[in-house]
Amino acid sequence: MHRVEVGLSDTLGELLRKLAVEMKAPAADAIVLTRDVRGQELLAEFEQSVVSLGLKHGDMLFASVAPSARPSEEPAAEAAAPEAARQSAMQVQQHAVDNELERDDGLIRRERDRRMCKHGANAMCEYCTPTEPYDAAYLQTHGIKHMSFQAYLRRVLADHSIRGDISGALPTNMALPLDEPEYRVKAACVGSHAPWPAGICSKCQPSAITLQRQPFRMVDNVEFASPDVVDRLLAFWRASRCQRLGFLYGRYQRLRSVPLGVSALVEAVYEPRQSRDQDGVHIDVGSAELDAELARADTVAAACGMELVGMVFTDLTPAEPAGKVLSRRHADSYFLTSLECRLAAFMQDRRPNACRWARGGRFGSKFVTCCVSGNLSGDIEVSAWQVSNSAMAMQRADLAVPSSAPSKMCVQEPSPTRYVPDVFYRYTNEYNLPVTASAKPAFPVEYLLVSLTQSFPLAPAPAFRSDTPFAIENREHVHAVQSLGALKRHLAPALGSSERLSVLLADFHLLVYLFGLGILGEHEVALIGRIVCEPMEAAQLAEELMAAGGWQTLVLMLQEA
Q: What's this model's pTM, rounded to 2 decimal places?
């Protein structure tokens, strides 16, 4: 029996974290907490306060560690596992923005309150002491629905008395605090039974899944470097009335408006080969052709100091009066369809976020999904989303499939090779009471979504600053063709002027086409990347490029085109 003390304003998550320490559980989400000994009244509302759940002083609850999180009976292997995981985590190369945020203490500074603070200028009290980045009152006051991932990490580390700058070496006296959910049967089980699917035991089978709103998000905001980035994507729809999907290239940077926040700055949209339909797009996300296209775009982006940060698609239908579009996505229908959620989960799982605090060296993903659709006023609007870590785990385990109802996700049926654990979700009924319901056969997709904010800069300064845009790839059916002839006409006015050439080369679609020709070498590609990243030295770098052998070969080829 364990006695745990919590405050009236503490959440159930705080209670579970304290229980995890008392019961020596690997994490708070490994604790199964119920009101009765039979385990029928599950408590899983992490973000609700203990008072709102009807708990009071002296209440007795029943807690156990989930079967999949229980310690192994092999003591030697168990003792070696944390140290092995720690040694592996030390080799993880995190993203630069995460390393930057880890060096920050994350504290939210507050000004001295003239009414409540009764002390001098060199003292502090409860009204002006800096607060933690995960402070619930601060987040609610500033309308932040999800705390940032780094703030969530600080909250987890606070249970181990680790605060402030966390950029140093990993502590030697604690297990890695983060672990991604895993809903597949463990492959290397030490139980005395045949490997799955011939046998299974409580050690290797996944525990029951309770879906709930993820309290944190890996990326907090999506910012488009210029309105032209979105306008050029919309130009395809305006010319053909067909939908379009593209991949977002840019960089991750710190977001000051959210404590320890991260923003994805989008500089360009690459449009892969896809079908042209008025009600959607068809694209083979696992094909070698698409992987080859993205590999070329990735190489060009890396030369410019950028990377793949997400994807965007349109869902637009003209409406009356002219210039308006239908509003399909809102709180009474859906924000992302079940098919779009599964695609987002697939793409996020392919682009995991490296994290040295996680047991597997990865935790979540920074890949974002944007949708361009109509708002309630009939205007075109961009919304940004991610799916939760649970959605990624369900995708890996092949537990969920889209349904014919866009707002519902179906749970797969068990098969001889697919183990499907019990899946539940929590909601508040008409009496304002929390209810646990089975997610089978289907559940709302909102339980998998994490909302992001989106913005445009007040003073745009895009990296791709060309004033004469080159044709966008894979738009032949709207008479936008990339060819040697088109390239010759585009570059002809600048072949004798390094200054003009430096401006024209600052075009992502042009650079991807040039790289795909296979004429320019690594040196020339690196020079072009510097022309994009260093506008003040762009003209001088362009002169160096014009003297390079690969560029001169390209000029000779264009003269013969």
A: 0.84
